[in-house]
Write a structure and sequence with these properties.
Blueprint lengths: L1 H14 L8 H15 L12 H7 L7 H10 L2 H17 L6 H20 L4 H15 L4 H17 L4 H9 L3 H23 L1 H20 L12 H9 L5 E4 L5 E4 L8 H22 L10 H17 L12 H12 L5 H17 L14 H7 L2 H14 L6 H5 L8 H12 L4
Antiparallel strand pairs: 1-2
Length: about 425
């Protein structure tokens, strides 16, 4: 982290001579003073976060741009270390366990989105921490935990809108108390807290401008920009319409588009196709998750939130490798299935294959793509390597099956000692399934 922080500091210091920015965070460092000191309005999506998110970034504007970048990198472990251990805790509280080999594969795969988030100055880990806390608290299903879970889930939604998928999940699971506290948290984080710092009128004005740019344009008008995103709507757009898959700037400064479409349908048609595919996936998820959970201290809860997290990535047009830090839920679920002796052999094999597949493909999102030539990065992004990884993980999760009580009785007992005690604890915890 220290090496990455020094590298980021030096990059910003170098690029300042050209009046450029190196990543999203550095862009915010140049934009935010206009909001904070001159009350400039939202005019485009250069700052895609709501006013509430300014409060997390504003303290860094007191530093120089290189120092702010360095500080932002250095605090990232305060995000990803708790996220990792809370996810592991959810698996253990659900009666599962993850072996060392599976855990190693998870860390290899997750390393690349985390590094991508750090090097690109993204806000995904900032959103993922309250989201993970919310899911961890929600597992207890007590009045006190529901309050905390609702407020934390609302905070994640107020940083980035896409965690609304988890609100829908808790509505489906009839966690009404948690949902009510999420709505209350939305009022708190979007209206009350920012108004304390910016004033009520200014906050409401900003919120309306942000909503028109970031929500209305995408939800109602179906605006699709050249984002090279790694989500289902973006993949469908690249495959079935004559939209650029990637773009390069030639030596003379002109822009050259590259295409990969196999059909030339209208943008309206491909947008409709993307939404229909997402609706079909949501319907399949509802059927798959139709079983009632007597308690969320079970493997099923871990598997369900993993699939909701994957759907959240698939549905957003603004999804890149750095956003796939959310893959941690699915990786933990696959690792749990692969390591679980109560899972059927076919399920364990598929989970192992998904983890190995992910560990092989994910490095191609790094500088390894340089072996493909100058356009290697664009080609890897355009074929959606991380999207196919997520599909394989989803397949391993939704097809996983566990032994019933009769089959469990036929499992050979281990030798007496500590191993017998661990087996007893595992079988006992699995009864919640």
């Amino acid at each position: 982290m220290i090496v990455l922080a020094v590298q980021a500091h030096n990059k910003v210091a170098h690029e300042m001579t050209r009046q450029a920015h190196i990543d999203a965070f550095d862009s915010y460092m140049q934009i935010l003073p206009g909001f904070l000191h001159q009350h400039k309005p939202y005019t485009n999506d250069d700052f895609p976060l709501p006013p509430f998110a300014m409060l997390f970034i504003a303290p860094f504007t007191f530093l120089s741009r290189p120092d702010a970048q360095m500080a932002w990198v250095l605090i990232k472990p305060l995000f990803f270390i708790p996220i990792f251990y809370l996810c592991l805790s959810m698996v253990r509280r659900g009666g599962g366990a993850i072996g060392p080999v599976a855990l190693g594969l998870i860390m290899i795969v997750w390393f690349f989105p985390v590094i991508g988030d750090i090097q690109e100055g993204q806000m995904n880990l900032l959103m993922l921490l309250p989201l993970t806390i919310a899911l961890w608290l929600a597992q207890d299903q007590t009045p006190r935990s529901d309050i905390g879970a609702g407020l934390m889930l609302a905070m994640a939604v107020c940083i980035k809108v896409t965690p609304l998928a988890f609100v829908a999940y808790f509505v489906f699971r009839r966690r009404w108390r948690l949902v009510v506290w999420t709505l209350a948290g939305g009022v708190l984080w979007l209206l009350v807290i920012p108004a304390v710092f910016f004033g009520w009128d200014q906050n409401v004005a900003w919120l309306g401008q942000w909503g028109n740019i970031m929500i209305v344009e995408y939800v109602l008008h179906g605006t699709v920009k050249f984002t090279n995103g790694e989500s289902i709507p973006e993949l469908i757009t690249r495959l079935f319409s004559h939209q650029p898959a990637w773009q390069i700037i030639t030596a003379n400064g002109s822009k050259q588009n590259h295409y990969m479409n196999i059909l030339n349908l209208s943008l309206g048609t491909v947008r409709l196709m993307g939404r229909l595919v997402l609706l079909a996936i949501a319907a399949i998820g509802i059927v798959w998750a139709g079983r009632r959970l007597s308690s969320q201290h079970c493997r099923r809860y871990v598997m369900e939130i993993a699939c909701v997290g994957l759907f959240m990535l698939w549905a957003s047009e603004r999804t890149w490798v750095a956003h796939y830090v959310l893959l941690i839920f699915a990786l933990m679920a696959a690792g749990m299935i692969a390591s679980d002796e109560l899972a059927r052999t076919s399920s364990r094999r598929l989970a192992w294959a998904a983890l190995i597949f992910a560990a092989i493909l994910m490095p191609w999102t790094s500088n390894l793509d340089d072996v493909l030539g100058p356009q290697g990065r664009d080609m890897v992004v355009s074929v959606d390597v991380v999207l196919w990884i997520s599909f394989y993980l989803a397949l391993a999760i939704i097809t996983a099956q566990f032994r019933d009580r009769a089959e469990r009785a036929t499992i050979p007992a281990p030798a007496p000692g500590w191993g017998l005690y661990r087996r007893y604890k595992t079988l006992n915890a699995a009864s919640s399934l």
